[in-house]
Amino acid sequence: MEAAAVARPRASRWGNALERQGVLASVLVAPAVIFIAALVGGPLLLSVYLSFTNATAGSLSGKWVGTENFRHEWSNQTFQDAAWHTFLFTVLSQVVVLLVAGLLAHALLRSFPGKWILRFLILLPWAAPLPLSLMGWKWMFDTSYSIINWTLENLGFVSKIDPPQWLAQPRLAMGSVIAVHAWRLIPFAVVIFLAGLASIPKEVDDAAAIDGATGLKKFAFVTLPLQLPIATVALLFGIVFTATDMAVVYILTQGGPPPSFSTEMVTTWSYKTGIESGSLGPGAAISLALLPVLAVVAIGMLIFARKREVT
Amino acid sequence: MSNAFREKSLSYLIVGPFAIVLAFPFYVMVITAFKNGTEFYDASATPYWFKQGPTLDNARFLFDNTPYTDWLENTALIGVAVVGITLLLALPAGYALARLSGRVGQSLGVGIFLTYLVPPTLLFLPLFWVISRLHLQDRLLALILVYPSFTVPFSTWLMMGFFKTIPQELEDAARVDGASRLKTLVRVIFPISLPGILTVIIFSFSLVLNEFVYAFTFISSTAHRTLSTGVYTDLIRGDLPEWGAIMVAALIPSIPLALLYNTFLDRFIAGFTGGAFR
Fold first, then answer.
1. ipTM of the complex
2. Could you say which residues from 97 to 116 on chain B have a Cβ atom under 8 Å away from some Cβ of chain A?
3. What pTM was computed for the model?
4. What is the CATH architecture assignment of B66-274?
5. Which residues in A121-141 are b (16+ Cβ under 10 Å) and which e?
6. What is the CATH number of domain A78-310?
């Protein structure tokens, strides 16, 4: 290989430098790295800086106020509620997602007639653009005329005079956004599970069969432990996608229903403070509450990547 | 009864009901899209089917009386520009990370992947500050500039997985024949990576259509909106929104995207896990 490179007629000094592995790699990877540093790393640092100032959306420049924004939000009832709602929203939707996705992935592992159409239907919530499919949900949750209440009323489960207001009653609203978010994430978790299950070697199955492990026993002692890493990956992704989501909650309830704002999340509260009220500094401080979640997930991912390397 | 038959029936019993529940909102959207407007508020009309038969009135209303075509154009324009920038940055980077570097490359790859996890909800305020300073508020350029911040990390990781599956021997052969590394990359590697490149295009486009926070924050006028925000901000208004037109608006981009997504999903999994499970 080296001989071929030397024998080649020299084009230019540039051309020669590009023949060296390290140089070409750096040249190829640098634009992407610089771009990402400028558009993700930079803003992240800027966000930390803004959170220590009283910058507003109007004037942009602000004075240094130290930890004032953090102290204010920390003792602010709305922020405390938002943090608690975000926690509930994330944990409850992830429980549903993991249970359903694990079950579905196992059932989809076998081949059966008509599997592709069922798989297509299952993947729809993830494949269709979320802000648009949420329009369907908004209509389905409509109190007076939509399909959910029409069905429940005709089955006699709820009264026609006072039907449930899915997005306007505090507990129902929280349940609704959790359900919709789980609906959205289940297909994604199924995909991850399927990829993980496919990577379990066939020999493991055979060995289990020879040792006489079948049915539940095999599931509990062979399949489940082997699946734990992949379930963890699905969970880590799920946590980030849920805790940092704003579209589902904002489009469905805008953090409402008022006056209790039972679905206000860290994300919607940060948006309302930073953009709607124009207080960039405090808004940035609120959004930084998501950083610890992100850090935990990133560390989890790194541990997973390292383990894979070793095995 | 045979074991295989029982297992298959079990699969149907599990997958069938869930498939119906997960796809149900789309069924409702399709019915609503073709429903006569008066039926929405008629308690005697079943929401599961048509009382007076399907109609195209909702689609006509959408195209004649709303800025929907503007939003389609804006989204297409942003999508094409973002995909272009993404390919330009992610293809070379993905290749370099897959092939040309060792330990450093691996860490860099994981690092780039982790930046994909940094969400818009954490960056929209500082980016709003930057966009305002650059006087790019309410301009499509703002979104074209910002969207690659999540499509590039994602696509770099995806391409890295694809490039790893291309045998090194193929490159060596080209280089023995006297081609330079750069020439090998452009003439040999990129052409056989076409399926991977198509996957990146489709998934980047899908990420653009899914993005809500930036589009909602940076764009303020109706004419400059994209599909992901325009339908929500401008069509859901008043006490009686035009639900039929709204569903047509939502379905037009969703159906082709969902079909493409499904077609390329297996390739996507191969690329996405190519970096993690090998």
1. 0.92
2. 97, 99-101, 105-106, 108, 110, 112-115
3. 0.91
4. Orthogonal Bundle (1.10)
5. bbbbbbbbbbbbbbbbbbbbb
6. 1.10.3720.10
